[in-house]
Amino acid sequence: MDLPAWLASPPGIEGQVGQVRPRPVPDLVDLFMVRFLSFARPLPLCRSLCLASAGVLALWACLALAPSLALAADEAVPAATDAPPTPAPKPEGGTQVQMPQSPALTPVPIGYLRQIVEHPRPSSRMDVEPDDAGIAGAKMALDENNSGGKFTGDLYSLDVSTVTTPDAAVAALQKFLESGHHFIIVDAPAATLVKLSDWAKGKDILLLNVSATDASLRQEECRANVLHIVPDRYMLADALAQYLVANKWSNWLLVRGTTPADTAYAEAVKRAAKRFGATIVDEREYKDISGGKRDAMGVIPPPKDKGGNAAKAAPDYQVIIVADEDQLWGPFLPYRGGASHLVPVAGTAGLMATTWSPGHEKWGATQANNHFQKDYKRLMRPIDYQAYVASRTIGEAVTRNHGADFPTIAGFITSDEFQLAPFKGVKQTYRKWDGQFRQPILIATDKVPVSLSPQAGMPPASHPDIDMDTLGIDQPESVCKM
After folding, report:
1. Contact in structure between 210 and 230 (CB atoms under 8 Å)
2. Which member of 103, 187, 215, 472 lies 3.0 to 4.6 Å from 114 by CB, making a disulfide possible if both were Cys?
3. Where are the domains of the chain?
4. Does domain 235-354 have CATH number 3.40.50.2300?
């Protein structure tokens, strides 16, 4: 009988000659296999099958006896004594390193002052602002500020005060100052912002405007204690005009509403057309005669001759520019008739210049939109983005000047060393001459951005290396005197 190699050596012996060591388990298996194979020797087929099963049977035997062998090995280990271990001797010389403790956190309270203003109901409920508009954006930035504040020793908080009148806003600002708030984000009309600024003059207060687009706040009504994150109407109109002219849509029909805001935006559009080489071939005023009936709203007014009578032929135009800041009739305009031919609509409806779009996906904007929607269960709006930038401005300035006094931190924001990069692909700063935040402007529909202004090839600004100064009022034409 031919035995496998592992059965060839005598029991108790394995390895080289002269090396004798017990074989713990295979002895029992060897005996079993010898008996089994002797029985199967007359049967060649059975013997072959048995040889093939030898390894399986050996493995089964080892597994069956393994617990008993392990228990015996454990019993052979001497019991540990109850005596405490002897400490290792300390090495002589060398350097001892002590891990730093978390720094004591310095509170940095941020105020958010919001004035509720009654507006007409917009044509679409999608344009109704949520209750936390702006506040949610400031909170998102607050989380980022505190992530860095854990290492620098700063603890940021946000306190919101909602008012309905300018006088109440001043009272709220006074309470903020008394409770240690020096940085105040303001969502209020221009008149209220001017009143707040005048009251805060000479005090350690910096106001950050996130909603008032009036160009006067950057010009004759400019203040040293106010920074503007929201673009003014000139910046928005210039951004749109650059895109239209770059795409050879240079003949415009301007349709404006009757409110002061609509008139101000229309003036900004006229300025932009002159500045970048477009032509306003006709200007018409929209008057709401619908009586509240949506089906009768948004028809483009017919052209008029110099005497105010209806003209027989409408002048040729490539784009309709809408000035309707309250969104009352503008969204209907492309679909109610009255146009001489089918053309794009832009301005406050259709293709718009804006600081933010939920469809923006470049330079980290996808992550920002996702985080915002997850935390606040809605899409980010431009007012949220503007409040986000305001809160991040404070966080960046405090971080870079930890422990400094208020004048140092406030002055740093308008210095050459300050910069932010909030999802627009370039570093962004504040203009020293009027406190306006420099930023690229998205050109977007209600769903997706289609471009980003400033556009290439536009006339250079007074600072050739800062093409964002082609948007809005450049330093040589500014009348702001801080």
Report:
1. yes
2. 187
3. 5-59, 106-231+361-439, 235-354
4. yes
